[in-house]
Amino acid sequence: MKTTQINQVTVPALGIGTWALGEGPAAQSTAELTAIRAGLDAGLTLIDTAEMYGDGKAETLVGQAIAPYDRSRLYLVSKFYPWHATPKLMRLALEKSLQRLGTDYLDLYLLHWPGETPLTETLSGLVALKKAGLIRAYGLSNFDLPALKAARALPGGKGIAANEVLYNVAARGIDFDLIPYQQQRNLPLLGYSPFGSGNGRQIPLPSAVVQLAHQMHLSVHQLLLAWAGRGPVIPLVKTGSAAHMAANLAALAVQFTAAQLAIIDAAFPAPTRKVPLQSI
């Protein structure tokens, strides 16, 4: 399996996303739990969640899914609201997340998006949580390059271990500046919503891209996922069934030729200048 590193810890180069999981009827949640465990059994030990997702329902589902597994072999990522970004409030938020997840620490804790709390306070709180052993590493989410640079210049900023942003064929502005910057500094970049959102049909695909998927014996979803994970970005993908999880794992092994990438680039050109960071 293709791997990479976050905070000097080896992790799969594909993460299990959990946005909107645990919010449906019992049968749906059971299928989602089965999907998570299918991923874990196959070696996908990186799970990304947040207190925002279903007001904690996703974290609760993840907690149920990982209960039988060796915690030390998992890499759990969660995120906190910007209005919980003071040292006191983030500690309370973290304690609730840990309770829902059924663990006593997170591998990575992220500020979900920039807010009004001064980053100096947020970083101070994150440093304290790390020193207390409640988190192994901390980072940011939805930070563009100027905001990331400003954060890294603050006390505690050099300890930022990762950044998580939107990344797919239709939202690839980070190819221009953020990816090169983070890659040069060995700062991992996680990319959410590789299909756009929902069931993946939110990104209109031209016939040439659909035909390419058929030629490569891939589903459109597998093509989009493989593209998002072709470089240094770690894609995070929500999966509601074991069958889809197996398809995601197959996509992890896909390698593109230059000609195949050129077809995708023609349909979704790489940026030639800085563009505003997109988010969902």
From TrEMBL:
NADP-dependent oxidoreductase domain residues: 14-267
The record's annotation in InterPro entries points to: AKR, NAD(P)_OxRdtase_dom_sf, NADP_OxRdtase_dom
Q: Would you say which domain of life the source belongs to? A: Bacteria
Q: List, alphabetically, the SUPFAM superfamilies matched.
A: NAD(P)-linked oxidoreductase
Fetch the PANTHER family from UniProt.
ALDEHYDE REDUCTASE (PTHR43638:SF3), OXIDOREDUCTASE, ALDO/KETO REDUCTASE FAMILY PROTEIN (PTHR43638)
* Protein name as it appears in the record: Aldo/keto reductase
Q: Which organism is it from?
A: Lacticaseibacillus jixianensis
Taxonomic lineage is: Bacteria, Bacillati, Bacillota, Bacilli, Lactobacillales
